[in-house]
Design a protein that fits this description.
This protein has 5 helices and 6 strands. The chain has a 6-stranded antiparallel β-sheet with strand order 1-4-5-6-2-3, with helices on both faces. The protein has 151 residues and is an alpha+beta fold. The protein has one domain: PAS domain (Beta-Lactamase), CATH 3.30.450.20. Helix 3 crosses helix 4. 34% of the residues lie in helices and 28% in strands. 27% of the residues are buried. The protein starts with a strand and ends with a strand. This is PAS domain-containing protein.
Length: 151
């Protein structure tokens, strides 16, 4: 079991690249391919995870893209199994459920969130990281969140 401790941080302490993601998000309040192209152009794609539902008939967010630091932490086999699946079907269910609350808040709140995460796993040293969460909703039932991860 993984214990997850989350501390909200002011956006002013975000890493420069996380602040840049927030600026891009503010410029693209509607999710579009242009947003992802801009992230790629800045070389930030590998630091980002992206989770989205398929539309109004699906409430759960699915794993669409994973941040490279997350892949390194949980492993490539885990990552390959997760892509395309509902993110709550993660074998680390306690972690996924706790992080989901943050994802939903970022989607519903309409503002970027920055969190300091502490993960405590039995027999392992604590892991600390930050993520900036950028959420979107669309009137057609679409929900999405981008997570900029800094381990």
């Amino acid at each position: 079991m993984t214990e997850v401790i989350i501390h909200r941080q002011p956006l002013r302490v975000a890493a420069d690249w996380q602040a840049a993601l927030c600026d891009i998000w503010r410029a693209h309040r509607v999710l579009s391919p242009a947003f992802l192209k801009e992230i790629e152009a800045l070389g930030l794609r590998d630091r980002c995870g992206f989770f989205a539902n398929s539309g109004p008939s699906e409430q759960e967010l699915r794993v669409r893209m994973l941040a490279e630091p997350t892949v390194r932490y949980f492993g490539r086999d885990w990552a390959q199994c997760q892509l395309g699946r509902p993110h709550l079907e993660d074998p680390h269910a306690d972690y996924a459920a706790r992080i989901d609350r943050e994802y939903q808040e970022s989607i519903d709140g309409g503002e970027p969130l920055l969190n300091l995460i502490t993960m405590l796993r039995p027999g392992q040293p604590p892991t600390f990281y930050t993520h900036v969460l950028l959420g979107w909703t669309a009137g057609i039932g679409r929900r999405a969140v981008l997570s900029g991860v800094d381990f």
